[in-house]
Design a protein that fits this description.
Blueprint lengths: L10 H47 L46 E4 L6 H8 L3 H7 L1 H4 L11 E4 L4 E5 L6 H7 L4 H6 L17 E5 L63 E3 L6 E3 L4 E9 L4 E7 L4 E8 L1 E2 L6 E2 L4 E4 L11 E7 L2 E3 L7
Antiparallel strand pairs: 1-2, 3-4, 5-13, 6-12, 7-8, 7-11, 8-9, 9-13, 10-12, 13-14
Length: about 375
């Protein structure tokens, strides 16, 4: 067989194979690529739609990434109540005024005491006593309902300037320093040319003075106490009688301090005994005073325990013992009241040792 030049015996099968690939597989591949592109487009669309929906659900608008504004965070609150403690910030915290620059005035009410008032104003009780000597005479029991007291702005001496007073002389007299007076804000002094104006008030921070206790009840002694001390008003007492053990008991059923506690200006404690409550002898001894007495005590009983100790019971509504009587620890000697200078029923109780005042808390159980 003779073959014609330019033709191959396998040309037809190759052409048939190429035609089959083009007609069958190329369309399939094209459709696959198209499907992938459509899926990708759908995915992108879903992402955009989801973010928009999220923004819409929070009540905020969707802000594109290229926007100059900042998108607020969505609110993820479930809307359900939550059982938990909640603290709300107080943007205007109230701070107590502990740095007053000017004096205040306070009107005495029923049940008041210098000790309690001093705590309210964050000053020492002696600061109030010293500023009100004309009314109180250094006696905290002289307060009366309706009295108006000056409350100094700081601890120390608050005084009216007299002719001849200087910053240096006042500082020396009241145991302070000129700088403390000069730089106290309430004194409002011109540091470059400080002057005191006669008739004005000046605060002497940290100042102090001696007490003028003309009102104190003297210590009465029984003859066997070893000292010959006869004072007007003292009971006529024979030698002998009951003696104390030195083991004290509370003079009232209540152990609560209702007014003044023991401090330099108040040499006893005020026990919260109600009107008519029993008052007991704190230890055995002999009554050396029983009756009314000046100085603000009202109805008072004093017991000499014969061992150097004396106890004093003031403001009694009634007295149940007599001068010279022996009493024993726990005996009822009277009833609590509000006689003398007092703003309410209580028991004023003092303990003295050889005439010196000691804190009753040191000997009471």
């Amino acid at each position: 067989m003779t073959l014609k030049q330019g033709k191959s015996p396998i040309g037809e099968p190759e052409k048939a194979h190429r035609s089959l690939w083009v007609n069958t597989w190329l369309p399939r591949i094209s459709w696959g690529i198209a499907a992938l592109m459509i899926a990708f487009a759908v995915l992108v669309l879903l992402q955009v739609t989801g973010v928009s929906a999220l923004a819409a659900s929070s009540g905020d608008k969707f802000i594109p990434a290229d926007s100059a504004k900042t998108a607020p965070l969505p609110d993820y609150s479930t809307g359900a109540a939550v059982n938990a403690l909640s603290r709300i910030s107080n943007l205007s915290t109230v701070i107590s005024d502990t740095s007053r620059e000017t004096a205040a005035e306070y009107t005495i009410e029923s049940g008041d005491s210098i000790f309690a008032i001093s705590k309210s104003y964050d000053v020492k009780p002696e600061t109030i006593l010293w500023a009100n000597y004309a009314i109180l005479n250094d006696n905290p029991d002289l307060i009366s309902v309706g009295d108006t007291l000056i409350i100094p702005p700081a601890d120390g001496i608050y005084i009216k300037v007299k002719d001849g007073d200087t910053i240096d002389s006042l500082a020396a007299q009241y145991k302070s320093t000129p700088d403390k007076i000069l730089y106290f804000p309430g004194n409002k002094m011109d540091v470059s040319n400080p002057k005191l104006e006669v008739g004005s008030y000046v605060m002497i921070p940290g100042g102090s003075r001696e007490w003028q206790r003309t009102w104190l009840v003297p210590t009465y002694w029984r003859p066997s106490s070893g000292a010959n001390k006869t004072i007007t008003g003292q009971c006529e007492i024979a030698d002998g009688g009951a003696y104390g053990s030195g083991a004290f008991v509370w003079p009232a059923d209540s152990h609560m301090i209702s007014g003044n506690d023991f401090w330099d200006g108040h040499l006893g404690i005020d026990i919260g005994a109600g009107l008519g409550a029993n008052v007991y002898a704190a230890d055995s001894g002999v009554v050396v005073y029983a009756g009314w007495i000046s100085g603000g005590y009202g109805n008072m009983v004093m017991i000499d325990h014969g061992n150097g100790y004396h106890t004093v019971y003031g403001h009694l509504s009634s007295i149940q013992v007599r001068c010279g009587q022996s009493v024993y620890s726990g005996n009822v000697i009277g009833y609590a009241g509000s006689t003398g200078n007092s703003t309410g029923p209580h028991l004023h109780f003092e303990v003295r040792y050889f005439g010196a005042f000691i804190n009753p808390h040191y000997v009471l159980p």
